Structure formats: C-alpha cells, structure tokens
Amino acid sequence: MRASFLVAPMYVAMIGVPVLMILYVISYAFAPLICYYVLLPLIVLGLFIFGVTGFFEVYASTSTRSPLLKMESDSISEFKDVKLAEKHEIPIDLVVTRFNNHTKKLEKQTYKSGASRFTTVLDMLLNAKSEGDQTLSFRYSCRMGICGSCGMVINGKPMLACEANSINNVIEGKIEVGPMEAHPLLKDLVTDFDEFFNKHISIKPELYRNDKKEQYAAQHEYQQKQSQIEEFLPYSYCIMCGLCMDACPVVNTNKDFIGPQPLSQAYRYYKDSRDELGKKRIESIDTLDGIWGCEFAGACSKVCPKGVDPATAIQLLKNEAIKGDIKKE
Ligand code: SF4
Ligand code: FES
C-alpha cells in the first residue's frame, strides 16, 4: 500500500487537536500564557489542517483522485500506475490459443487490447470479438461468477474469465488464454461439457426419500437445524464450472475417474439430513475410479472459485467408506 502525503497530516491533526485541547484545559490554571501563546495557536493550526485535508477527502470521495481511494486501489490491484489504468491506457496483448480447423492444430493468436483496473479477461475477449474477429468463440452468460460458463485456462491456471482481473493477470505485457484441457474441445475456448454433466448426474444429485409418494408430494417442509445445514452447505455452492476437473491431474490422465466435482456433490447430498439414500451413495463411488482414484493433489480446491473444497469432501467420503458404519444419524 502506498502512503499518501495527505493522509499523515490528516491523522496527526485528528489525534493532535483533542490532545492539545486537554492540555489547554489542564494547564490553563497555572500557565495561562503558555495556553494563549503556544497551545491555542497549535489548536487553531491543527483544526485548519484537519479541515483542509478533510475537505479534500470528502470532495475527492466521489472521484478517483482521492489519495485514500488511491491507497485502496493499490491494494485491489498490484499495478503500479493506477492513473494510467483508470484511463484505459494499459496496452495488453491477449494471446488466445485457438483451434485451427484447416490445419487441425491449436494455434496462438494475439489480439492487441487495453485494460483499465476493472477490466476482466472476459471483457478483453468480448472486445477482441466485437472489434474485428467475430470468429473467436467462447462461452459466457452472467459475467459475475454465477453461471459457471466462462471457465478457461488463463496463464496456465483454470479460472473464470469474468472473475479474472486483467491487470492482475498480466505477465510481461500479455495474458495467455486457452481452453480447458480436461473437457473435449469444440471450438476455440469452447469445450464440451456432456461428459462432465453425465458424471455429475451419475452421483444422483438430488434428494431421495424412501417413501416415493412422499418424495413427490411432501405434506410438510423438511426442517433442518443450523448444524445440519452446515454439514453440506459449503459443498452446495458449486456452480458446475468444471475448473476443478481441469485442474485435477487424475482427471487429466484417467478419463474414467469420476472427478472432484461429482464426488464433492456426492458428499453434499450424503450429508444432507433430508436425503435417505445414505449407504447407497457411498457404495456407488467406493471404487478405484470413484473416491479411491483421488490422489489428494488438492489442485481442485485451489482453483475452485466458490471455495467448495472438493479435495476435503473426497477424503471425508473415503473416511465414511472405511468406517463401514455408514448409517446416517
Ligand atoms: S467444485 Fe468449484 S471448481 Fe468444481 S465445478 Fe464446482 S464451483 Fe467449479
Ligand atoms: S460468465 Fe458466468 S461465471 Fe463467468
């Protein structure tokens, strides 16, 4: 964080004036001359400094010229020259790995672009597409990290393009973008999620009741205590972006491994007190391509944009399988 030349005097005046006032009151009885000729001018000077710096901050709080806001922006972005970034003057090369249908090879294509401190990689892709190359294909929808559509590999790491700040991801003046590799490539940055969804469906991602009639015509709501909700809530934030599957070294070497996303969801439903599939959920994934395929690399949890932590979920499932006592409380 960079210190502003105005911040220090503002805080010194803010603290100093009350201290001087207290000294004034205490020493007035036995040293009135010091009060008049030393403390009083200092108090007036302090009020003046506080007024000027305070006014500047209030005025500037609606503009980006505020030194305090600049400090904040420095903490948001590590980029050194915020002023340049605010004016959309940061030139960045967007290097996109695309599939060339003629040569049947992946090729890199560079788009000259620019970014402000709030520009995302998705914004840059949209710019590249609208300002010339309309053949560039990528998937997106919500632009706010909710739909999970815009997953891609940015500088070698699976990320959501709409959540990847451009300035923070620049390396030597460029950002490298490519398709996720764990999912079959369709075009440019668009990958096929059929297999991913099939694996997800295979773990039965819904609540099951023993009484089928009740399942489809419940007479009352299924109430849960807070402690019961907390058992599965962190795992229910999955947006099915597939980034964890792309980061997983086992998924990338063994296509039969069910993978971190479906397994984390198996745990999510297993721990839900409203679900009554219980033991059967564990049995269906207690295989070498199920929970035992996981080598606990942990890459899945590192890249998850929602903090789902599939790696931990899989170890907890292994624990349930080993225990043998998999009856739900
Ligand atoms: S667990 Fe995280 S990374 Fe994996 S699909 Fe769900 S949200 Fe995406
Ligand atoms: S566009 Fe929806 S998550 Fe990125």
Q: What do these coordinates show?
A:
The protein has 14 helices and 7 strands. It folds into 3 domains: 7-75, no CATH class; 82-190, Beta-grasp domain (Ubiquitin-like (UB roll)); 193-323, Orthogonal Bundle (Fumarate Reductase Iron-sulfur Protein, Chain B, domain 2). It is α+β, with helices and mostly antiparallel strands and 329 residues long. β3 (151-154) and β4 form a beta hairpin. α11 packs across α14. Bound molecules: iron/sulfur cluster and FE2/S2 (inorganic) cluster. Residues 238-244, 261, 264, 303-304, 306, 308, 310 line the site of iron/sulfur cluster. The site of FE2/S2 (inorganic) cluster has 12 residues, from loops.
Q: Look at the structure and give the CATH class of the largest domain.
A: Mainly Alpha
What is the architecture of the largest domain at the second tier of CATH?
Answer: Orthogonal Bundle
Strand content: 5-15%
| Counted beta strands | 7
Bound molecules: iron/sulfur cluster, FE2/S2 (inorganic) cluster
Q: How large is the count of helical segments?
A: 14
What is the total domain count? 3
CATH superfamily of the largest domain: Alpha-helical ferredoxin
Question: So what's the overall shape?
Answer: flat
How does the major sheet shape up?
Answer: 5 strands, mixed
Rg measurement, Å:
29 Å
Q: Which structural class do you get from the secondary structure elements?
A: alpha+beta
Mean pLDDT: 88
